[in-house]
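note to self: the first set is below, dont mix up w the second
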Amino acid sequence: MINKKHFSASNIIFVVLMILVVITWLNPSAKVELIRGLMAVGAFKPDPDDYARNHKETVSLPNYSYRDASGNIISISGLKDKVVFVNYWATWCPPCLAEIPSINKLFSKFKNNANIVFLMVDTDNDLLKSAAYLKNNHYNLPLYTSVNTFPDALLDGTIPTTLIFGKDGKLKYKHTGAADYDSDKFNEFLEKEAK
């Protein structure tokens, strides 16, 4: 008598999930889409209130500079009295690429607010490549590279990393890893900080 093995629904789901894991592990574009899909269902929501509750240390705007594609240099310490949104990213980083659409939406909402400055910092210092990526994907974000080494206390080498300094020059929010910044809560946080 021949024993027929039947695939149960759980076995089929397991095999499909394993195939998806392998595909996302081997294909960076698939990782980006997976993270964006998770964002769409409510994952990766940043919580500025949680950051404020759990981080009591006072960090101020460092004396640090960035350069744009035209060679103009902006000093972050000279941006006191403004909310400064700094995002460190790279074109090869799937979590970075996954969060850029939400940052672009956030930037579109606040780009005319003179009290908020956005700095998208390419960690590879390859402005041509990163500018091409932004342009090809119809993102209108202000692009910069670092002029000197950023303090390890604020940037430990993990990307993406987002830092937000308040008008008082103090660090109000820090997040490493992907986040969906186009949320009502995060919009309210920026509006409150910009007043």
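second set (the one i keep forgetting abt)
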Amino acid sequence: MSLPAFTPLAAARRPTLLIVGCGDVGLRVLPLVQPAWRVLALTSSPARAPELRALGAIPLIGNLDEPVTLGRLGGLADAVLHLAPPPLQGRRDPRTQALLRALARGGRVQRLVYGSTSGVYGDAGGAFFDETRAVAPGTERAQRRVDAEAQLRWFGRRTGARVTVLRIPGIYASNRLGGHPRERLQRGTAVLAREDDVYTNHIHADDLARACVAALYRGRPQRVLHASDDTQLTMGDYFDLAADLCGLPRPPRITRAVAAQTLSPMLMSFMSESRRLDNRRLKDELRLKLRYPTVGEGLRRG
């Protein structure tokens, strides 16, 4: 992926990128932005500092749940990649609020990319749609993301920072903890019967990391994009495909009524929303060529 040079207001120096929430995807971003960027990584765990330093990032100790620890963030970075999730409860995202307050005090940030979720749309009945569709969050988890998106876009309008929101579906990769269907197949977790099944969307973790970097360079101001691949499969067909590729038995199919009695509320929430995401903005505006355009290719190769 060839990207143009980033030109901050204070030219003639290497720009600084702050990664907030430097988990699996953030770690995949690191080698993509070095050595062009000086990279800072915010972590609430001092124990992670050696790992981040070894990977080329400068660790900063701070906690989004403790705003007093974020005071010095504002003047440190030209760009921010915000991948930290909201809290586990409530309809608001106070973590994003604390981060933006800290960033606003410095007035340096020119670009901000946020990793949101496609869950903000709620159930679309299997419809295929682009980013102009109105959000309709069906869970508090999704409502927290809608709140974060609103805060970020307001921050962009108020400060002039170029904010890009990536709405992300299910992330997978063979070396991602909890991110490969093999684990669920080995547990024998059921999927819905064909008449009750839902469409689901996916992105390989490596392609998501590349989308984050492309958005730092090419994202339009206050723009939303679907960070999704080209796959249009129902959830059951996805796990059938994964089972065949892994040499495992296909999962049992059960009705929605049986699923409601036997599966966890969290799993049922994912099985209650059906949508297909149009990813043309990702490919046209960010000019991103997916390495794994379908889950079939991703599961076979990576």
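remember for set 2: The first strand starts at residue 16 and ends at 20.
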